[in-house]
Amino acid sequence: MDPQQEIQQLQEQLVYFKKLIKNMSAPIIPSVVPKTILVPIAGFIFTDRFEMIRTAVLEYAEKYRDTERVIFDFTGVTTDDLMEFDYNGLASELSQLNSALGLMGLRAIYVGFNPLFVREIVHAGIQVELEVYTTFKVALEHVLNESKKSVPKI
């Protein structure tokens, strides 16, 4: 294979893997609780990724109009580069995400924030109004108790 063909093949692979990463960055999972979806967030979080998440959730809500609640699970977020993390940027992204979802009539619920992550946000003096629970299970239980329902049998 000549170098030009090899470069072309590598560029095509790069495009493929970028698309794959984009699709995996914000999976949307319908919950057993009616009108509720789960968006698990794992790995590193950054501005472009929040934009993808916001877009994916808003497009889902447009398609599935009966959706009322979105639970974002941050349990899998990596905090390896905590000292280099932009907490003001995160606060801004969370605020924009909340505002966008609110305008669509969706209730945003956040779970699974890492204690170290929370400490750094508080230490940075960042204020963001969010509905937060410790785990996905606790959030679902709260939503079920509000609606006085139980988990449907599968």
TrEMBL record:
Entry-linked InterPro entries: Bact_StressResp_Reg, STAS_dom_sf
Matching SUPFAM superfamilies: SpoIIaa-like
Protein origin, superkingdom: Bacteria
Protein name: Putative PAS/PAC sensor protein
Organism: Planococcus donghaensis MPA1U2
